[in-house]
Amino acid sequence: ILSGTAPSKTGKIVSQYPAGTYYSYSGAAYMLLQQLIEDLTKRPYADYIHEAIFRPLDMKDSTLTCPLPHKLHEAVIPGYDIK
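The chain above was modelled as a monomer; its predicted structure follows.
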């Protein structure tokens, strides 16, 4: 995905602006951060986040698992109105 090769559906991730000159949300930047954490910790990103953030903050119902575990379905607040 980072290099833009199959099975990626997007092009290679490249910087469009010099660092610190422009702010915009970047999903690609979060993907790079996730890969950096996995490379440095030698652990899956979800496992690291669970141990470093969710567990110390006692966030028992938080997860990065997709699809969402069935046990958490009732606790989820949708980001839209079902009506």
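The helical segments are 27-41, 45-54.
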